[in-house]
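Would you kindly consider the sequence and fold I have copied below?
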Amino acid sequence: MQRRALRLLKTLDEADAVLTISLVDDAEMQRLNREYRGKDRPTDVLAFAMREGRRVAGDEAQLGDVAISLATAARQATDRRIALADEVTTLLVHGVLHLLGYDHERSPVEARRMFRKQRELLQSVGSAPARKRGH
């Protein structure tokens, strides 16, 4: 995962940014989701941005934190018939896009934009798209 994360940041021109990735269980994810989003259930990924907007060139800054529920990722990987590593990578890319300001909940147009970018990034980091194989 570290290799894919580094490749992702480099692809996004964020190679010098600091990104924290936490793999948590469903109980911790539910706690985070309740505390920060007011939703009392686990989710697959949460992103916590540490900066506002784009950074200035040469500014090494904390990009943010991405929390991934490994248990939820494992269930989703099984449901989608993909490798767990590919599902975790998909969640990482999704979380990092949120850190960069993408928001699929804002509008259908923004959702299309975000998921298009997510597919492009997954290809660039060498991960299979998070869907059933063979489709």
The longest strand covers residues 62-69. Residues 2-124 form a domain with the Collagenase (Catalytic Domain) fold (CATH 3.40.390.30). The chain has one domain: 2-124. The helical segments are 2-11, 26-37, 70-80, 84-99, 108-124.
